TrEMBL record:
The record marks R175, K234 as: Positions MEP for the nucleophilic attack. Catalyzes the formation of 4-diphosphocytidyl-2-C-methyl-D-erythritol from CTP and 2-C-methyl-D-erythritol 4-phosphate (MEP). GO terms for molecular function: 2-C-methyl-D-erythritol 4-phosphate cytidylyltransferase activity. The gene is ispD. Its EC number is 2.7.7.60. It comes from Micromonospora rhizosphaerae. PROSITE patterns: ADH_SHORT (PS00061). This is 2-C-methyl-D-erythritol 4-phosphate cytidylyltransferase. The record marks R36, K43 as: Transition state stabilizer. Gene3D superfamilies: NAD(P)-binding Rossmann-like Domain, Spore Coat Polysaccharide Biosynthesis Protein SpsA, Chain A. It catalyses: 2-C-methyl-D-erythritol 4-phosphate + CTP + H(+) = 4-CDP-2-C-methyl-D-erythritol + diphosphate. Belongs to the IspD/TarI cytidylyltransferase family. IspD subfamily.
Length: 503
């Protein structure tokens, strides 16, 4: 849309008074009905990565220090759903959950009425853009100190064409000047209120976005554009659901790192952690690290305690031991896994059975047995996948397949167990220096492998976070030096392989 200079000759003064907003309000626009997705519920209530889309979106603004208040404009008939999500998640900044209007401009007017008078920063954001970043929110708010209207956009990777009523090209605009609009759109309250006041006198007024209203009815007002991101997609069509879900997996929502030993000790002292596969590799390093921070850790494995993760009675006994010793279980970690290479057609029945039972039946068994304990503490189950889950690899097809299954298991259980307050996450480490990997691939250059201790540290960060339904990537930092992992003396090959995770 281009500015129409004839619409409003009285543009704002060039040197307005200094802007002094009383607060910053995020308005979450959740009025969609999911028609294009073919759903029976509004798309913002669809679950991705273990949570409703709108909950992911609200969490970003709840965590943003620049945001003081959140107002949700919800689709008619679904206020109770939104209110329940807000209450269950404990979002303290949400002040109102109200019904939106029939049109975009009607919804904006409702929001402005709900905010009330006074000088306020206002951010309008689509509820179905759950991957908006904290950086985008911050830059929008900061830009309002200088500009009274702010948009978010990214360059167009495609050539844009203009067509006529016969679908024939009439123009091909220069791509360098084109952007694809996103949200949030941010405004000083006086600016957006005045734009809508002037629009009321236009019988042809129909808003598709709020910056367009300012552009048309306040033509002298500069609208600052800040960089959006490719990940800040809007879930509108069925393919968007799959893209958003994959982006949540690959984005690897980074668990916040605490700053010092004391902070970790304060978090972990008094917690009980059960580690299946805790003898060697990642499981061993995680157990040792958690102990140093004051956690009570109970490692179990085939080699040290005779615990087979695929046997329900073994798992039940292990959990009972930890619970009777401490009276609680806060976290259950399953690092146990085996890697057997070979063509599927040539693999014997015993090997196939062992792979499937240890790598998949084991985590399923642990999950089932752990739930009653984790319900009591609102705790977390942590599983481990491999980079091979995204693409089956020749000569270890069953290993790849079981790792993909664990990703699906993580997401499904995060959804199922949300009502119990139990979190479920999955670590996806880069190729890691563990005894299991050495056994399968031999000695490899140190600089090409991630250390088991680094994966253990990332795992600990996830355990003390509020993440759920996430697949967290763990990657080497540039220049990291990794010590070779020696083979464990005296361990049988099957025991050694069950001690660590190969990624």
């Amino acid at each position: 849309m281009t500015q129409d200079p004839t619409t409003a000759p009285d543009a704002p003064p060039a040197s307005p008074a200094p802007w002094r907003p009383s607060r910053t309000v995020a308005v979450i626009l959740a009025g969609g009905t999911g028609t294009r997705l073919g759903l029976g519920i509004p798309k913002q209530l669809l679950k991705i990565a273990g949570k409703p889309i709108i909950e992911h979106t609200l969490a970003v603004f709840e965590a943003a220090p620049e945001i003081d208040e959140i107002i949700v404009l919800m689709a008619a008939g679904h206020l109770a759903d939104a209110q329940r999500i807000v209450a269950d998640a404990g979002f303290r900044k949400v002040s109102k959950v109200i019904e939106g209007g029939d049109t975009r401009n009607a919804t904006t007017r409702i929001a402005l009425d709900a905010i009330g008078e006074g000088d306020v920063n206002i951010l309008f954001h689509d509820a179905v853009r759950p991957l908006v970043s904290a950086r985008i929110v911050r830059e929008c708010v900061n830009a309002l100190w200088t500009y009274s209207a702010v948009d978010v956009a990214i360059p167009s990777a495609d050539t844009i064409i203009q067509v006529d009523e016969l679908d024939c090209i009439t123009d091909i605009p220069v791509r360098a000047t084109l952007r694809r609009g996103q949200t949030p759109q941010a405004f000083r309250s006086g600016t957006i209120r005045e734009a809508y006041r002037r629009a009321e006198g236009d019988p042809d007024f129909a808003a598709t976005d709020d910056c367009g209203v300012v552009l048309r009815y306040l033509p002298g007002t500069p609208i600052r554009v800040i960089d959006g991101s490719d990940e800040n997609i809007k879930v509108t069509h069925p393919v968007d659901v799959h893209l958003a879900d994959k982006l949540f997996q690959l984005a690897a929502a980074q668990a916040p790192r605490l700053t010092d030993h004391r902070s970790y000790t304060e978090e972990l002292t008094g917690r009980t952690i059960v580690v299946f596969g805790g003898s060697y590799g990642i499981g061993h390093d995680l157990a040792e690290l958690a102990r140093r921070y004051g956690a009570q850790v109970f490692p179990f494995s085939r080699s040290t305690t005779g615990t087979h993760v695929e046997r329900a009675e073994d798992v039940a006994s292990a959990l009972k031991t930890a619970f009777e010793a401490t009276g609680r279980i806060d976290h259950v970690v399953v690092t146990a896994g085996i890697l057997e290479k070979g063509a599927l057609a040539e693999m014997d029945e015993e090997t196939m059975d062992r792979l499937l039972h240890v790598n998949f039946v084991g985590p399923v068994t642990v999950a089932r047995q752990s739930l009653p304990y984790l319900q009591q503490t609102k705790g977390q189950l942590l599983l481990y996948t491999s980079s091979s889950y995204t693409r089956g690899r020749a000569r270890y097809a069953l290993y790849s397949a079981t790792k993909a299954a664990l990703v699906n298991l993580t997401q499904a259980l995060a959804d199922e167990w949300a009502e119990f307050g139990v979190r479920v996450n999955c670590i996806n480490p880069e190729r890691t220096a563990t005894p299991m990997r050495t056994k399968a691939f031999g000695e490899e250059p140190e600089h090409t492998l991630l250390s088991a201790e680094a994966v253990a540290q990332a795992s600990l960060d996830v355990l003390i976070s509020e993440l759920t339904g996430q697949v967290i990537d763990v990657r080497r930092t540039p220049g990291e030096q990794v010590a070779a992992v020696p083979a464990q003396p005296g361990a049988h090959s099957s025991e050694q392989l069950s001690a660590g995770i190969e990624a």
